[in-house]
Design a protein that fits this description.
With 287 residues, this protein is of the alpha+beta class. It has helices at residues 14-17, 25-40, 80-95, 116-122, 159-172, 179-191, 237-251, 266-271, and strands at residues 51-55, 58-63, 67-72, 102-108, 126-127, 131-137, 151-156, 196-202, 205-214, 220-228, 256-261, 275-286. The protein is built from 8 helices and 12 strands.
């Protein structure tokens, strides 16, 4: 997921989440998914929210830069008609705020949500590409490797660097440069909510970047927004960027990681012990 939410948890229970060699991958996935639903689908999912309005089970979130976001723990057993009503209410809420220009509805593949896809499409949402929800121990990510020769990995904090990173990530995702994303990142850095921005550079050019989002009061950290320019993929650069973020999180006492991963990044995380527990599909609405 690209949105600066991110992301993305109340106190994690080690007894539920700590994997071991004697536990099957299926058991790991089941336990991780339960923890994800119970601990990650809370207000901690959106630490950078400007405002949050509750409508039934929905959390209708407003972010800086004219962005809306819809999320929830579950849909409370709603049938197809009730789901349509929830979608209509969310659209009406954001349409009434003239500053909102785009909204993401974050769906999860394991939810009971009868008729949700049809209701969203009928209300003007377009489905994005599904991503895998990955959860697992943080430590292994720190051992993914150092930066390849000629590559520098560093944390960025200045406005110039943040805007350059945001533009590079837009390019890597094949999107037009959107200055509002950089504005939102800078606003979050100004609030000092724990988010870190990291980039990899080759010959002084930013070629890969991503966010680190520690979740206060928990063992969790989110690794988000990872993107690498096409010409620099499959060189170990993203692995090094991920390892650097993981080491930073470990230094803060975090032990568990969650991430929404594309087909490109999922194999890297799986080799480090993370488990795909479900999928998430963003549905996007624009004014």
């Amino acid at each position: 997921m690209r949105s600066v939410t991110t992301g993305r948890i109340r106190r994690a229970r080690r007894s539920v989440l700590a994997g071991s060699a004697s536990v099957s991958p299926m058991t790991d996935a089941t336990n991780y998914l339960q923890a994800y639903d119970e601990q990650l689908r809370t207000d901690a999912e959106t630490p950078s929210a400007v405002s949050v309005t509750r409508h039934g089970p929905l959390r209708l979130v407003t972010f800086a830069g004219g962005r809306g976001f819809v999320t929830y723990r579950d849909l409370g057993g709603a049938d197809a008609e009730a789901v349509r009503e929830l979608v209509a209410a969310a659209v009406a809420h954001f349409r009434a705020d003239t500053e909102i220009t785009r909204v993401e509805w974050k769906s999860r593949g394991h939810d009971e949500a009868p008729g949700l896809h049809d209701a969203l499409v009928a209300s003007g949402f377009a489905a994005g590409e599904p991503e895998s929800i990955m959860i697992g121990p943080l430590g292994a990510l720190a051992d993914l490797g150092e930066a390849p020769e000629g590559v520098t990995v560093r944390r960025v904090t200045t406005e110039t660097d943040v805007r350059a990173m945001s533009a590079m990530v837009d390019e890597a995702f094949g999107e037009a440069v959107d200055a509002r994303m950089a504005d939102a990142l800078l606003a979050r850095l100004g609030r000092d909510d724990g988010m870190e921005l990291w980039v990899a550079e080759v010959d002084g050019r930013m070629v890969s970047g991503g966010r680190l989002e520690p979740v206060p009061g928990t063992d969790f950290v989110g690794i988000w927004g990872g993107a690498t320019l096409e010409a620099y993929r499959h060189r170990g650069i993203y692995r090094a960027l991920t390892a650097a973020r993981a080491r930073s999180a470990l230094a803060q006492g975090k032990t568990l990681v969650h991430s929404d991963s594309t087909d490109d990044s999922r194999p890297i995380l799986e080799r480090s012990g993370l488990v795909a527990v479900s999928t998430t599909t963003p549905y996007d609405w624009t004014r």
